[in-house]
Amino acid sequence: MHFAEGLVLGLVFQLAHVVELTEFPDTNEDGNIEEAWAVHQMRTTANFARKSPIAAFLCGGLNMQVKHHLFPKICHIHYPAISEIVRETAIEFGIPYHEYPSFGKALVSHYKVLKRFSRPEIENAA
User: Fold this and answer.
1) How much of the chain is helix, strand and coil, in % rounded to 5?
2) Residue 33 counted as domain residue
3) What 3-state class would DSSP assign to 48?
4) Could you say which of 24, 45, 67, 68 has the lowest number of CB atoms within 10 Å?
5) DSSP E strand stretches across the chain
């Protein structure tokens, strides 16, 4: 039971934050990130399998990490209803909205990022 839950939670958080679309911003010389909190959430978080009721059930809505980060006090059962509003609003204001249509596509993207991070620092600078 612990193994299964640990695997699910590990995958959910990795697929929501360590994928090709998400950004990994550096701090300024004072140790601060110079952007609005909500914009930072949008840049560093991704959804996966947003339209899958099975993924939403198995992950408790955490497959919709963008909504989870923006609205942490809203019950996950409401995420599908607000999902399209958040996406359209992000597009309207030119803010990134990162999303993978399936678990599999997010997993492939995660492994590509791990491969990129495993290379020497010179290659990661690009």
Assistant:
1) 60, 5, 35
2) no
3) strand
4) 24
5) 46-48, 98-100
pLDDT at residue 122 tops 80: no
pLDDT at residue 41 in the model = 94
Q: Is residue 104 part of a domain?
A: yes
Domain count for the chain, please give it: 1
Phi-psi region of 125 (alpha: psi -120 to 50; beta: other; left: phi over 0): alpha
The residue type at 34: E
Domain of residue 64 covers 38-119
- Residue at 29 is within a domain: no
Can you tell me which residue has the tokens 């596509």?
105
Q: What is the mean pLDDT of the chain?
A: 91
95: phi then psi, degrees, rounded to nearest 5: -105, 135
pTM, two decimal places: 0.83
Residue 87 lies in a domain: yes
Quick check: 80 pLDDT over 70? yes
